[in-house]
Write a structure and sequence with these properties.
Elements (H helix, E strand, L loop, with lengths): L17 H15 L2 E3 L16 E3 L15 E5 L2 E5 L6 E4 L4 E5 L4 E3 L12 E3 L9 E3 L30 E8 L2 E9 L4 E5 L7 E6 L6 E3 L9 E3 L25 E8 L2 E9 L4 E5 L7 E6 L6 E3 L122 E3 L2 E4 L25 H17 L6
Parallel strand pairs: 1-5, 8-9, 14-15
Antiparallel strand pairs: 2-3, 3-4, 5-6, 6-7, 10-11, 11-12, 12-13, 13-14, 16-17, 17-18, 18-19, 19-20, 21-22
Length: about 475
Amino acid sequence: MPTPRFGLPFIAQGQAQKEVTHNDALIQLDALVDLFLLDRDLSVPPASPANGDAYLVAASPTGAWSGQAGKIAYALDGGWRFYGPIKGLVAYVADEQVLLVYTGSVWVDWASLLSLQNLVQVGIRTTADATNRLAVKSNAVLFSHDDVTPGTGDMRVVINKSAAAKDAGFTLQDGFSTRALFGLLGDDNVALKVSPDGSSFFGALSVDKATGNVGLAGYTADGNELGVKATNILFDRKTANIRALFNKAAPADDASFGFETNYSPRALLGLLGDDNFTIKVSPDGSGFTVAISIDKTTGAVTVAALTANGAVALSPANANVVISPTGTGTVTISPAAAGAMNNVNVGATTAGTGRFSTLTATGAVTLSPANANVAISPTGTGTVTISPAGSLTINPTAAGAINNCSVGATTASTVRGTTINATTAFQQNGTQVVAARRTGWAAATGTATRTTFATGSVTLPQLAERVKALIDDLIAHGLIGT
């Protein structure tokens, strides 16, 4: 009759060869007590086992292990002895460095049977304390999904706090001095803060819990989808190009930049209520004035007012530049120094607008055409008035013509005399009219008259007639005696 658990044989009274029975029992104890298994995955016995080597025979064994699946194979004297495991038997598997327990039907990992509940504190390779009740000293910590039970395939780490004003987060340290905080820090919004010394902290990221709006660089997330508190912002290209796009839903919407003073708008730039490019300005953030508008189709630029301290160059390619004030507006071109206006047409835009143009200068006005003419040409019954405060000098480099010109008072009621000073002969239609005036001659008052001159060639009788008419005019004005 064997023992109830291990099945060890008893020595009967008066039994012959008692030592054989006793030795078999000792061998079985040597095989099963403090069971040490070299491997549990072999189905073919090793070729040269040492006495005392033990294996857990795997499924479908062959050779000397045939039919012994699930049993313990114990090597002795070149052969094998097989023992069935008993419930509660503990074995150490050397190649896996694990403890196994036999449940009566299967072998299970000892660790799965351990229940560590309501432990006061746990330290892994370090000492836990009342503050750090779980302390781990390791190069890495792995949290993986449950692939045994099986689980859901998910892996979540939950950090819970008691109230919104508390913290639930991660603390990242260097030499046990905090350099970053991440989590729900003092409220229920997500925050990331950094520190150079563990005492002063700067906000890097803020995410509003209700909207998901983001604040960067110390800006607290609010009603703006993105807020940035910065002195300088740089967007750098990843490879060669960089583009920033602003898209709107419809032409009537806005896609724009806004510029504010103390959160009050002062300028808007972009597609404002249509698809034209517009710049608007405001003195108070409520009323806006269009400063510049660029038509989306033609590219035409409309400017409310243009003032420059330096040179302004308008260079159309084979086209016209039109400066056209509306209503009774005035166009003033006021250069700080002498300059040139080339190919300029100054006048009313149309005959029917009733608008006149005045060219006023505090200094000299120089009209210098290059191999061309200077034309001051009013349309209809318009009048050209040249009214200098001082003297007027018309000094062509060669003889030219002044046509359809009335030199004198602009109206009969204006008592303004006119003096024509010429350093050389004054001519009309190619015929000399007046020689240079001699010093000391005084002009007489009244109206000068002369005979109309014919154009073309001059005969001697015609010349004599004109000389006589000239003498009469000079006598009438007191320039010569009778």
